[in-house]
Amino acid sequence: MTNQTILSWFKPTWQQLPLIDKANFPQSVLLTGKQGIGRNQFISQLIQLLLCQSVKTSEEGQALACGQCQSCHLFTSNNHADFYQLKRLENKQTLGVDQVRSVIDWVELTTTLNHGKVLFIAEAEKLSISASNAILKTLEEPPENTTIILLSEYEKQVLPTIRSRCVHYLLPSPDTHQAREFLTNWYTNAKIEIDSTQIDVLLKICQNAPFDAIDLTNSNKLEQRKAILNAMKIIALSNGSPVHEAKELMKLMKKEPLDYIFYCFFTMIIDILKLQNLGNHKHVLNIDYFNELNAFSNLISQYRQKSQIFSIYDELQRYFEMTVNPLNAQLLLESYLIKWKNCCLNS
Ligand SMILES: [Zn+2]
């Protein structure tokens, strides 16, 4: 990693960590924080520092990796033999016991560079019960010079037996000012022209997660978001065909999963419910689509329609709780859009 600056909203957490004398650093650590706020950057900086042979102190008094020693070079080129990241295997919903057993074997091996060893488990909440049981002893008494770092979105998602064996640190989300400042600099450095209103809209959509905002502008996600809004409009206001609109959306997606389309649909349904029940636009996420969402909200006035929109909300919520991908995503999309049409029809 070349950029050693700690993201401004993480500085208080970084200061809390006993980093100046690494001997004081806890051996089993649980970090929690929302996705899209720069967790990976923080953890990468932390691991590099724990492995660094010549830690330096910044002008602000922060401990930082030197960026120049052999260990730093090996880490930044993804070749450090004393670092291991435990990842879920493709198509597996959990981190299984076999994977954990082999990683425990790695933990027990001798340190190559004699500057400690770091194991990183990125989705601590995905450890299966048997995998969790297998790693408990190692978490409780890691070998000398070994640090185990676990990451999860929320503390409560991690099994209590794991939590109780780790020291917990929170990675806070940036406030709007910090997120806006970071994004403005990021787009300036990337030479991408974007005005402050667009940045505010992106931050609203991404709930202040600046790396999610970057991901939106670096992918076709904004296009997907607009496409689902257009499909909703055509169906609700011009008597469009849900089957036809689903087909058009599938063309846009090619072979990509529909998760983001479903997510946008879900947030727009939530916004309509907020407009109906709270009556103000302060909490609307898709603020740039306020006029369209307000028009939908005005259209859905009868009792029957209101219960329909709640049923769409329930179904989408269940979709995001599902642990397996749907067999036929197009059919699922069609069924949601048919429900949307029924919801908008005046009887
Ligand atoms: Zn170094």
Could you walk me through the main structural features you see in this protein, from its secondary elements to its overall organization?
The protein has 347 residues and is of the alpha/beta class. The chain folds into 2 domains: 8-170, Rossmann fold (3-Layer(aba) Sandwich); 219-344, Zinc Finger, Delta Prime, domain 3. It has 15 helices and 7 strands. It has helices at 11-16, 39-51, 70-76, 97-108, 129-140, 160-163, 176-189, 196-205, 210-217, 221-237, 242-253, 259-277, 290-299, 303-321, 329-344, and strands at 28-32, 56-57, 63-64, 83-86, 117-121, 146-152, 167-170. Strands 4-5-6-1-7 form a 5-stranded parallel β-sheet, with helices on both faces. A two-stranded antiparallel ribbon has the order 2-3. Helix 4 packs parallel to helix 5, helix 7 packs across helix 8 and helix 14 (303-321) runs antiparallel to helix 15. Bound molecules: zinc ion. Zinc ion is lined by residues 52-54, 65-66, 68-69, 71-72.
Question: How are the SSEs ordered, and which strands pair?
Answer:
Layout: H1 11-16, E1 28-32, H2 39-51, E2 56-57, E3 63-64, H3 70-76, E4 83-86, H4 97-108, E5 117-121, H5 129-140, E6 146-152, H6 160-163, E7 167-170, H7 176-189, H8 196-205, H9 210-217, H10 221-237, H11 242-253, H12 259-277, H13 290-299, H14 303-321, H15 329-344
Parallel strand pairs: 1-6, 1-7, 4-5, 5-6
Antiparallel strand pairs: 2-3
